[in-house]
Write a structure and sequence with these properties.
The complex is a heterodimer of chains A (314) and B (598). Chain A has 314 residues and is mostly helical. Chain A has a domain of 182 residues: MetI-like fold (Orthogonal Bundle), CATH 1.10.3720. Chain A has 13 helices and two strands; from the N terminus they run H-H-H-H-H-H-E-E-H-H-H-H-H-H-H. Chain A has a two-stranded antiparallel ribbon. In chain A, helix 8 packs antiparallel against helix 9 and helix 10 runs antiparallel to helix 13. Chain A is flat, with a radius of gyration of 24 Å. Chain B has three domains: 197 residues, P-loop containing nucleotide triphosphate hydrolases (Rossmann fold); 234 residues, Rossmann fold (3-Layer(aba) Sandwich); 74 residues, no CATH class. The chains are: A mainly alpha (314), B alpha/beta (598). At the A-B interface, helix 1, helix 8 and helix 9 of A face helix 2 and helix 4 of B.
Chain lengths: 314, 598
């Protein structure tokens, strides 16, 4: 097991290296530079700034310098947010995005697989059609529609709970308080719930037709016992392969939700840094993103082996 | 005395998009306490659905009506809860294909215990104890270790013994065995049937045995019901059904079963040597652990034989014996590690790819699963014409079509079906398509790789007849690979017995079947069942104990020659000795020839 983990992590290093190299040179191929949008500087001053950031050196030397710093764990200073290093910016944004994304994914996993299993058990009955229609709706409506709608209903109008009018904050992080999390997490989770439910339904229907489920029924086991003891683990396998990339996507790609709810996550850096040609910031975010994807896929593979003894490290 | 299970007027219907399918029609059947009733029929006869329907295990689109009384209580239409109280406790089931019938992610021990804990309310510790005893009882060695393993870690025979353990552990009154030995090797089948017989004798369990195999039914059933298209066409005492069948269908079924004790092989009619295979080896690299060395699985380990014009050579062996790998290596469909294949005097090791492609017209193959080996999106006429396109590109489309139609007529297919798709034809018809596709280029050699194994007996008899007739008419040579010794008997001039990639015995068919020398050949022949209850119950079997050793184990070859086991890492390999003219037998120890008769 330890050997397997080490080997997987070692195998990830070349991947990371290729991603960093490609990103580095592609960013430089794009026209413009980090200081172009600023007030026109005297050429000498600009040259000085460039020299300070080593931007005057040949590209290949800059690449070498970047790799050298990266090897020491230094992501460099941000060209745009000049008082901060890239590591500081990511360090403040990532925990917010992590908490948001992981909560949304857990919620989606819980509700989605319950709904999907339920639909599979009631295949082609009205419950099944209802769940699938809802899921289709969840996938088609984009988050920039659901976010303002939910904000309007729960944040502005409010709902009556036990005779108390109850409203949720529509913006701000507030240190990650539960009240502030509810709306953004829900909005992020909705499409994921839909996808998970559809995946779960499909694989559960497949599993319920398997011969070993018939064997379990022939043993006289009750329906919940069959579902949780014999069917669920096998049915969860397709979900696991989806979850790795999906979680990475939700962690870094929640820009829209973070903007709408005014949350200080990492998502906005991803887009803004690319537009601003903030070279070090883009590279830093890409490194974090790539590492996350590699890590999450690794976790997914481990989960796969836990769920299905046939794939155990063979 | 009221019977244990009484089925009266049972109908089972399935709602399908193409309309209702009436799978079981007005079937009545009773099973007494401790009795064994065999239900025999071909695919689609409804024999499995009969018992699934009786105990509420139909697929979601199935409906059963009529009456099913178990211990005088009506159980058809009762609640799931009441059914669950019976299923797995008083009535248990064994299914075909134990790999898919066991939950892949649960240890076999837990799967056996589950029913015991639920129905007999024992503690976990006691359940563990009894599970281990049960596994020992069904002759699984190292039961304590095996309990903690997953189904995929066990061999096919062991998995089926686990299924039996699941079914037997609650001490049921009725055990329903649905094709319990199908797809298992004959020697394993013999072991499984012995275990079922022992259970019945010890616990007085009634058995409902569902099978397509008349031999399996004859070996154990007291009474037999013959089913066709959802109906019981004949039922009665086993001896009466087998010795004096009344219904034409029963007679036809019995006549179609190939029998070792009645059939004789074809007359020999040999011409020139067509193919000579010399000391051929094929090995596959197997990686077991992460950092472990790659080991070589020797699938074919030094096989030599010759095949003459017009001759049929049977290749017999159990799963893992390397018979299909041998065929593919001979046809150059996969590279041989070493050894020579000489085709009509030409050493194919020197031939380049173009030459071998040209030779494909002379060497063709017919595969096991007819439906899976045909392109589902291609009309059968085009599948048959494909070899013509690549090997006779000069033929015009019309000329090719004429040839295809003539070929279809020759293999007994209606030439007007040229545009039909494989799913529109039956299994037997699809296999005729496979044969037509192989025969259309007038090959000199056809390899039949388990070509009739997946077919019902009546269809199997037809296809065997067709292959024999085609050979007599065209004088081609056949390499007939099969695990079924009785079918091989019908068709082959000479027979080669493979065991873990090596020949253990090779002789003319008559010599091999009448005078088998090697203990493995004897055990194989002894395991073949005869559709006759009197013969089946009177004879003693030579049973091989335990499982086939892993082909990765270098000592596996010495299973029949243990006196050479002391040889060290470079183990001795049994030599083939000629004991009579053309009769070769691998070395074995007489002492090992112990008949562990059970």
């Amino acid at each position: 097991m330890a050997g397997y983990t080490l080997r997987r992590l070692a195998g990830a290093l070349p991947t990371l290296f290729i991603i960093i190299t490609l990103t580095f040179f592609m960013m430089r191929l794009a026209p413009g530079g980090p200081f172009d949008s600023e007030r026109r500087l005297p050429p000498e001053v600009e040259a000085n700034i460039k020299a300070a950031y080593n931007l005057d050196k040949p590209l290949i030397t800059q690449y070498g310098l970047y790799l050298k710093r990266l090897a020491h764990g230094d992501l460099g200073p941000s060209f745009k947010n000049k008082d901060f290093t890239v590591a500081q910016l990511i360090g403040t944004g990532l925990p917010v995005s992590l908490k948001l994304g992981l909560s949304a994914m857990s919620l989606a996993l819980l509700i989605g697989s319950l709904l999907g299993s339920w639909a599979a058990l009631r295949q082609n009955c009205w419950q099944d059609h209802a769940v699938m229609t809802l899921a289709m709706t969840g996938i088609t409506i984009p988050t920039f529609v659901t976010a303002p709608l939910l904000s309007l209903v729960f944040g502005i109008y409010g709902v009556m709970v036990f005779g108390h009018e109850f409203t949720l904050p529509v913006a701000g992080w507030n240190g990650g308080a539960l009240r502030n999390m509810i709306l953004p997490v829900t909005v992020l989770a909705l499409p994921q719930i839909a996808i998970v439910a559809r995946l779960m339904r499909g694989s559960m229907i497949e599993v319920l037709r398997a011969n070993y489920i018939r064997t379990a029924r022939a043993k006289g086991l009750s329906a919940p016992h069959i579902l949780f003891g014999h069917a669920l683990r096998a049915a969860a396998l397709p979900l696991v392969s989806y979850l790795g990339p999906a979680t990475a996507g939700i962690l870094t790609g929640s820009l829209i939700v973070e903007q709408i709810f005014g949350l200080p996550g990492i998502g906005r850096y991803f887009v803004l840094a690319a537009l601003d040609r903030d070279y070090t910031m883009v590279l830093g975010v890409v490194v974090v993103y790539a590492a996350l994807i590699i890590l999450l896929n690794f976790i997914a593979d481990i989960l796969y082996a836990v769920l299905d003894p046939r794939v155990r490290l063979s | 005395m009221t019977p244990l299970l009484e089925i009266t007027g049972l109908d089972i219907r399935f709602a399908t998009p193409d309309g209702e399918v009436h799978a079981v029609k007005n079937v009545s059947l009773s099973i007494g306490s401790g009795e064994c009733v065999g239900v025999v029929g071909e695919s689609g006869s409804g024999k499995s659905q009969l018992f699934l329907g009786a105990f509420g295990l139909l697929a979601a689109n199935g409906r059963a009506s009529g009456s099913v009384r178990f211990r005088s209580r009506e159980i058809l239409g009762t609640s799931q809860k009441q059914l669950n109280a019976i299923r797995g406790g008083a009535v248990t089931m064994i299914f075909q294909d134990p790999l898919t019938a066991l939950t892949p992610h649960m240890t076999v021990g837990r799967q056996i215990m589950e029913a015991l804990i639920l129905h007999r309310h024992v503690t976990r510790a006691e359940a563990t104890q009894r599970t281990q005893e049960m596994l020992e009882h069904v002759r699984i060695p190292e039961a304590a270790r095996r309990m903690k393993q997953y189904p995929h870690e066990l061999s096919g025979g062991m998995r089926q013994r686990v299924m039996i353990a699941i079914a037997a552990i609650t001490g049921p009154d009725l055990l329903i065995a649905d094709e319990p030995t199908t797809a298992l090797d004959v020697t394993v089948q013999a072991q499984i049937l012995e275990i079922l017989k022992a259970l019945r004798a010890e616990q007085n369990t009634a058995i409902a045995l569902v099978s397509h195999d008349m031999g399996v039914i004859a070996s154990i059933a007291d009474r037999v019901a013959v089913m066709r298209r959802g109906e019981i066409v004949e039922a009665g005492e086993a001896r009466q059904i087998f010795h004096a069948p009344q219904h034409d269908y029963t007679k036809m079924l019995l006549a179609a079963v190939p029998r070792l004790d009645r059939d004789s092989g074809p007359r020999s009619n040999h011409g020139e040597t067509l193919l000579a295979v010399e000391d051929i080896h094929v090995a596959f690299p197997i990686k077991s652990g992460l950092f472990e060395k790659t080991r070589k699985l020797k699938a074919v380990d030094g096989v030599s034989f010759t095949l003459r014009q017009g001759e049929t050579l049977g290749v017999v062996g159990e799963s893992g014996s390397g018979k299909s790998t041998l065929a593919r290596a001979v046809l150059k469909l996969l590279p041989a590690g070493s050894g020579r294949v000489v085709w009509m005097g030409r050493d194919l090791n020197d031939a380049d790819r173009r030459e071998i492609r040209a030779l494909r017209g002379d060497m063709q193959i017919v595969f096991q699963d007819p439906l899976a080996s045909l392109d589902p999106r291609m009309p059968v006429g085009r599948s048959i014409a494909e070899p013509l396109k690549s090997l006779r590109p000069e033929l015009s489309r019309d000329a090719a079509n004429t040839q295809v139609k003539a070929m279809m007529a020759q293999v007994g297919l209606d030439p007007s079906w040229i545009n039909r798709y494989p799913h529109e034809l039956s299994g037997g018809q699809n296999q005729r398509v496979g044969i037509a596709r192989a025969m259309i280029v007038s090959p000199r050699l056809v390899v039949c790789d388990e070509a009739v194994s997946a077919l019902d007996v009546s269809i199997q008899a037809e296809i065997v007849g067709l292959i024999g007739a085609l050979q007599r008419n065209s004088g081609l040579s056949l390499l007939f690979i099969s695990h079924d010794l009785a079918v091989v008997r019908r068709l082959c001039h000479r027979v080669m017995v493979l065991y873990l990639g090596r020949v253990v015995e090779m002789a003319d068919a008559d010599a091999l079947y009448n005078d088998p020398r090697h203990p493995y050949t004897r055990a194989l022949l002894s395991a073949v069942l005869t559709p006759d209850p009197d013969i089946e119950r009177s004879r003693k079997r030579v049973l091989l104990s335990g499982d086939v050793p892993s082909p990765l184990d270098p000592r596996a070859q010495l299973r029949f020659l243990p006196s050479r086991l002391s040889g060290g890492p470079d183990y001795y390999r049994p030599k083939l000795l000629e004991v009579a003219q053309g009769h070769f037998v691998a070395e074995y120890d007489e002492a090992q020839d112990t008949r562990s008769t059970l």
